[in-house]
Structures are given as structure tokens and as C-alpha cells.
From TrEMBL:
It comes from Geodermatophilus aquaeductus. Gene3D superfamilies: Jelly Rolls. PANTHER family: PUTATIVE (AFU_ORTHOLOGUE AFUA_8G07350)-RELATED. Pfam families: Cupin_2. InterPro entries: Cupin_2, QDO-like, RmlC-like_jellyroll, RmlC_Cupin_sf. This is Cupin domain-containing protein. Residues 46-113 form the Cupin type-2 domain.
Length: 156
């Protein structure tokens, strides 16, 4: 009888990979694309009460899914903002315009799954650093930042 390779299981504990605070948000790269061989990436995201998240945008080369764990998350989908609650799921296909924020008086936590598993952690790390430092890049710098990370911003 042959057994599968024992090294084919990756475990990423919260203790070893904690949430990173960034202003009213906190996030954790649960499974970055580097760990999943580019198959997918998984992010745990928490937003404080009445906090902005991501304005409407889309991606050309990957999809993003949202699964609400707790609280109430307001998602932009189908051309409008609408609240979603624990257990609700949304899939933004490539070129599907989406956004998120917390309009409620309670914290919200959710998972973001993106496929394929591009190096999205670089986007979140740069964004978190901007929030932590309070740095406000100008329009030109933000356009270059978004282009580097396949994020196309749209008007509501």
C-alpha cells in the first residue's frame, strides 16, 4: 500500500499569521497564492463600524468572492449598494464591478477568495501601509498603484 506524501498539507495558524491592523480595518492573508501554487488566495478581512472599504472597481484577470462571517457588510453589486449578513456570499467574476464597506454600527468580518491566486497580498500590504501611515497618495500615484494590481476603479 502506498501513502500520499505527508508534506502536502500546509497549516497556517492565526498565531503564526496574525491579523494586521490598518486603521479601522484588519486583514490576514490566510492562504496567499504563494502557498496555494497560484490556485487561489484567501483573505480574512475585518472592518470597524461605519468604515470605508473598497469603492466600486473590477479586475480583468481574476475573480473575487465575498463570504460574510459576522456583522453586516455592504456590497456594491448590480449597480447598487446593499447590506449582506452572515452566511451571505457574492462572486464578482472578472470584469464584474464590485465594492464593499461597513455602513452598520457593528464590526463586520468576511472572507475574500480570489482566483487564480495572484500575488494579491502585495496589494493588501501596500494599502494597509497607506492606511497605517496616514499617507494620502495623489491621483497619479493611485492610478499607477491600481494599474500595478489589476484594479480598475469605476464611477458609481
Amino acid at each position: 500500500m502506498s501513502l500520499p506524501e505527508p508534506g502536502l498539507v500546509d497549516v497556517r495558524t492565526l498565531a503564526d499569521h496574525p491579523l494586521t491592523e490598518a486603521g479601522s480595518a484588519a486583514l490576514r492573508m490566510v492562504a496567499p497564492g504563494a502557498v496555494t501554487a497560484g490556485r487561489f488566495g484567501l483573505v480574512e478581512y475585518r472592518l470597524g463600524p461605519r468604515s470605508p472599504g473598497a469603492m466600486p472597481h473590477y479586475h480583468q484577470t481574476f475573480s473575487e468572492s465575498f463570504y460574510v462571517l459576522s456583522g453586516e457588510l455592504t456590497l456594491y453589486a448590480g449597480g447598487r449598494w446593499q447590506p449582506y449578513r452572515p452566511g451571505d456570499f457574492a462572486l464578482a467574476h472578472e470584469r464584474g464591478v464590485h465594492g464593499f464597506r461597513n455602513d452598520s454600527d457593528e464590526p463586520a468580518s468576511f472572507l475574500i477568495l480570489f482566483t487564480p491566486g495572484i500575488a494579491r497580498e502585495e496589494f493588501f500590504a501596500e494599502m494597509a501601509e497607506m492606511r497605517r501611515s496616514g499617507r494620502r497618495p495623489g491621483p497619479e500615484e493611485m492610478t499607477a498603484f491600481y494599474a500595478r494590481h489589476d484594479q480598475v476603479m469605476v464611477e458609481e
